[in-house]
């Protein structure tokens, strides 16, 4: 049997091999769904529908419950994240100071929309609500790095810092 490799180059068989013992350990433990989802996301980087189905079967829990929990909590992602996860704050202070235009500039530069990942898996883009840096509005983060008081002309330089070139 050949190995299953996804679009980003990861080995799906190896990931399932890592997930199986998690299900063995926690599937019968009451209240363990969030723990299993967290560990699955650590393994896969996000929670694709196929993984949710595996968890549903392994726990004997309806898919609706798995999906409901995965979409309710902000810590879970249903789409792949890039090596560099860019989040643009669209909270009130940031939005009023131009965050919407920054988001459009990033979408244009990267060729992706919100909650998408570039084909090479290097960048993902997300909109978020207040990150607590209103005094620096508008703000975006790249992984844990915060960039504030931005204008659209700042976008190319920020992307270049992470190896992006058109």
As residue ranges, the low-confidence spans are 1-9
- Number of helices in the DSSP assignment: 7
Shape: elongated
Category by helix and strand content: alpha+beta
The percent of residues in helical segments reads 40-55%
What is the rounded distance between the termini?
Answer: 39 Å
Could you explain the architecture of this structure?
By secondary structure, this protein is of the alpha+beta class. It is about 45% helix and about 10% strand. The radius of gyration is 18 Å and the shape is elongated.
Blueprint of the fold:
Blueprint: H1 12-26, H2 33-44, H3 49-59, H4 63-72, E1 84-89, H5 92-96, H6 99-110, E2 116-117, E3 123-128, E4 140-142, E5 145-147, H7 155-161
Parallel strand pairs: 1-3
Antiparallel strand pairs: 1-4, 2-3, 4-5
Helix pairs in contact: 1-2, 2-3, 3-4
State the gist of this model.
It is built from seven helices and five strands. The protein has helices spanning 12-26, 33-44, 49-59, 63-72, 92-96, 99-110, 155-161; strands at residues 84-89, 116-117, 123-128, 140-142, 145-147.
Main traits of this protein?
166 residues; alpha+beta; five-stranded mixed β-sheet; 7 helices
């Amino acid at each position: 049997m050949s190995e299953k490799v996804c679009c980003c180059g990861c080995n799906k068989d190896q990931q399932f091999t890592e997930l199986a013992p998690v299900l063995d350990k926690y599937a019968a433990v009451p209240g363990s769904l969030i723990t299993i989802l967290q560990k699955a996301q650590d393994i896969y980087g996000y929670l694709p529908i196929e993984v949710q189905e595996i968890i549903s079967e392994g726990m004997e829990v309806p898919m609706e419950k798995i999906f409901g929990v995965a979409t309710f909590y902000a810590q879970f992602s249903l789409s792949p994240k890039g090596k560099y996860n860019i989040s643009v704050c669209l909270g009130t202070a940031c939005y009023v100071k131009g965050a919407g235009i920054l988001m459009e500039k990033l979408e244009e530069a990267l060729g992706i929309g919100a909650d998408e990942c570039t084909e090479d898996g290097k960048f993902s883009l997300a909109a978020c609500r207040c990150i607590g840096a209103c005094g620096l509005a508008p703000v975006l983060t790249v992984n844990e790095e915060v960039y504030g008081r931005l204008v659209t002309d700042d976008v190319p330089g920020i992307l270049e810092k992470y190896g992006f070139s058109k």
